[in-house]
């Protein structure tokens, strides 16, 4: 096994030191002799919800809670869809949950999950809302203290969530087939397909890159209608955005729809110079074609306006990520670029933008018919936020900010939003339009490097966009990609070992040793922005919703060291979903005395 040493693996030293003094998995599930648990005469029943992928965590959490006076019943659903259905319906006391901050900024790590109007939130707390909104407008130096206070409100004061761990992010690939220098592992963004190449470049046109993902039931291929593991990787590779994230979470224009971007003085106005070498791709007779339609400034305005508008589509799942966008427009007066200073005071916006352009800006044009970058005629997008908010750039790198075709989306979404019927109306991006069989009518227009051809219950197939940055370093190397839907990690790893797939994205820590023993496989790993936690059902009439003392008794029953030991010491401590991004210094320490104290308070209150 060849282990690729990436520059970000400085964390490995910390992990190996921590692993020197850890328990085995069997030891982790054995009660230590000196452990003083809290026992009650009448054990309170708790229902713990999870999916098969959570089996290890479910068992450990159950045992820890049972040791501390609870009577836990596991409700393990057969798949993610049924698990999520029960979670959305509120049929649980506590549930295994996870969140990965795929934008690389701390506001994303909390806004959707914990604000009163968050699309993934069941919490309604004015103090939490105020702290999230305060931190969003602060610099990194300022927001450490605010996120510290937020964490204390979420965990210490109210026990809305119970942290379990911060995970590593890992993938494994067959280095006999794939060129290791073309395989990226980003901290936040989904796996990028376009750089990947076979060692034998002559087969890039004929062989299909074989990948895998857990979920085959796709939320939506409309980027604003989904924000989950079923579509994040797919939509990230099908729709270009105004900016991208580097592997280490820096916001850049490289490989995006903009050549360069600049932030104006005051941190409320943002300018983007658009490229003119990307057209939308469509599917015709089972092949990807160039539609001849430029991915233009008009499409950018349409895409971001609908992204921020909660009523633009039925079941809009990502609007809260873009609520700080006020206006998006095409610049028509070049003098604005000359007269506007940069946020750091180092010069004008025009000087900054032209610094990275091969041809200086001779004019800013509104009509896409006038665009000619080689002659200096550019479309320039101006985005203004509701208030100074530099973190807006991270959100623009998210898959939900992918650029769609205004003409195509409007031609598909002809229904009345108020009377939308999911059983009969097929909206843009509905997987039924791409699924083999009677419903197949592929209406996708992809602005990114790849477009989906079709899917079935087992896999989805893609082809490269023939009009995506051709003859540049960002043109996709491999022409065809197949994503297999394999729900079980062991089955996916078996497929990798038997060369049925080329790369496995998302590898659990307990599988590292298996990969290391294979001569033809390379393992890549790094700290991720993923945090696993217990979601407590505070939006219900259940006892856990009514009593903060009861929730705190659950909180202090959890021993993160034991959990990490079950994963060979490769799980890192976490306090909230902010942990991988901001060092607040907060840490959860299991404490049976506090369990007893808070449980007694709960009983004494008669709740």
Describe the structure.
The protein is α/β, with parallel strands linked by helices and 607 residues long. It has two domains: 204 residues, D-Maltodextrin-Binding Protein, domain 2 (3-Layer(aba) Sandwich); 229 residues, Dipeptide-binding Protein, domain 1. Helix content is 27%, strand content 21%. The chain has 19 helices and 21 strands. Strands 1, 2, 3, 4, 5, 20 and 21 form a seven-stranded mixed sheet that branches. Strands 6-19-18-17 form a four-stranded mixed sheet, covered by helices on one side. A four-stranded antiparallel sheet has the order 9-10-16-13. α3 links the parallel β2 and β3. α5 runs antiparallel to α6 and α17 packs antiparallel against α19. The termini are far apart. The N terminus is likely disordered.
Q: Given the structure, what is the number of helices?
A: 19
State the distance separating the first and last CA atoms: 57 Å
Q: What is the total tally of β strands?
A: 21
Which structural class do the helices and strands define? alpha/beta
CATH H-level name of the largest domain... which superfamily? Dipeptide-binding Protein, Domain 1
Specify the CATH class of the largest domain. Alpha Beta
Q: What percentage of the residues does DSSP assign to strands (E)? A: 15-25%
- CATH architecture descriptor of the largest domain: Alpha-Beta Complex
What composes the largest sheet? Answer: 7 strands, mixed
pLDDT < 50 stretches: 2-35
Based on Cα principal axes, name the global outline: globular
- Based on CA atoms alone, the radius of gyration comes out at 25 Å
The number of distinct structural domains comes to 2
What is the CATH topology of the largest domain? Dipeptide-binding Protein, domain 1
Helix content: 25-40%
State mean pLDDT (0 to 100 scale): 91
């Amino acid at each position: 096994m060849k282990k690729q040493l990436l520059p970000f693996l400085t964390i490995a030293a910390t992990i190996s030191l921590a692993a020197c003094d850890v328990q085995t998995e069997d030891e982790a599930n054995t009660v230590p002799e000196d452990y003083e648990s809290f026992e009650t005469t009448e054990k309170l029943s708790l229902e713990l919800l999870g999916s098969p992928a959570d089996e290890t965590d479910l068992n450990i959490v159950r045992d820890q809670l049972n040791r501390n006076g609870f009577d836990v019943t596991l409700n393990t659903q057969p798949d993610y869809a049924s698990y999520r259905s029960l979670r959305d319906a509120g049929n649980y006391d506590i549930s295994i949950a996870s969140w990965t901050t795929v934008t690389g900024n701390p506001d994303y790590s909390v806004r959707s999950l914990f604000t009163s109007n968050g699309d993934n939130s069941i919490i309604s707390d004015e103090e939490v809302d105020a702290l999230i909104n305060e931190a969003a407008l602060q610099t990194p130096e300022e927001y450490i203290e605010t996120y510290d206070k937020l964490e204390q409100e979420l965990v210490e004061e109210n026990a809305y969530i119970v942290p379990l761990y911060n995970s590593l992010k890992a993938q494994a690939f067959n280095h006999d087939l794939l060129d290791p220098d073309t395989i990226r592992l980003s901290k936040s963004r989904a796996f990028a397909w376009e750089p990947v190449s076979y060692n034998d470049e002559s087969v890039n046109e004929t062989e299909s890159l074989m990948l895998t993902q857990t979920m085959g039931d796709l939320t939506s291929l409309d980027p604003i209608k989904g924000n989950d593991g079923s579509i994040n990787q797919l939509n990230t590779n099908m729709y270009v955005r105004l900016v991208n994230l580097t592997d280490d979470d820096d916001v850049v224009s490289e490989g995006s729809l903009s050549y360069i971007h600049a932030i104006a003085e005051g941190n409320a106005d943002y300018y983007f110079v658009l490229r003119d070498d990307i057209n939308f791709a469509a599917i015709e007779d089972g092949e990807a074609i160039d539609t001849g339609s430029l991915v233009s400034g008009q499409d950018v305005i349409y895409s971001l306006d609908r992204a921020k508008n909660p009523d633009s589509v039925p079941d809009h799942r990502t609007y809260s990520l873009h609520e700080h966008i006020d206006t998006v427009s095409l610049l028509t007066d070049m003098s604005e670029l000359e007269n506007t200073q940069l946020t750091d005071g180092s010069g004008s916006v025009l000087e900054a933008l032209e610094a990275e352009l091969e041809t200086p800006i001779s004019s800013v044009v509104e009509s896409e018919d006038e665009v000619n970058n080689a002659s200096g005629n550019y479309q320039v997008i101006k985005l203004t936020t509701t208030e100074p908010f530099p973190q807006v750039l991270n959100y623009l790198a998210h898959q939900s900010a992918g650029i769609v075709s205004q003409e195509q989306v409007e031609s598909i979404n002809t229904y009345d939003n108020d009377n939308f019927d999911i059983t009969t109306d097929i909206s843009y991006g509905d997987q039924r339009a791409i699924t083999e069989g009677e419903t197949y009518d592929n209406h996708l227009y992809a602005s990114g490097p790849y477009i989906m051809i079709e899917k079935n219950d087992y896999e989805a197939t893609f082809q490269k966009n023939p009009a995506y940055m051709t003859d540049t370093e960002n043109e996709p190397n491999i022409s065809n990609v197949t994503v297999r839907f394999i729900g079980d990690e062991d089955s996916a790893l078996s497929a990798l070992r038997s060369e049925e797939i080329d790369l496995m994205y998302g590898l659990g820590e307990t599988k590292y040793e298996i990969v290391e023993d294979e001569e033809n496989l390379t393992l890549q790993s790094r700290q991720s922005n993923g945090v696993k936690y217990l979601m407590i059902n505070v939006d219900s009439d259940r006892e856990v919703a009514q009593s903060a003392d009861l929730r705190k008794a659950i909180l202090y029953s959890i021993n993160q060291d034991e959990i990490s030991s079950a994963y060979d010491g490769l799980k890192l401590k976490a306090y909230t979903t902010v942990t991988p991004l901001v060092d607040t210094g907060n840490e959860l320490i299991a404490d049976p005395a506090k369990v007893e104290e808070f449980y007694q308070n709960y009983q004494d209150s008669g709740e």
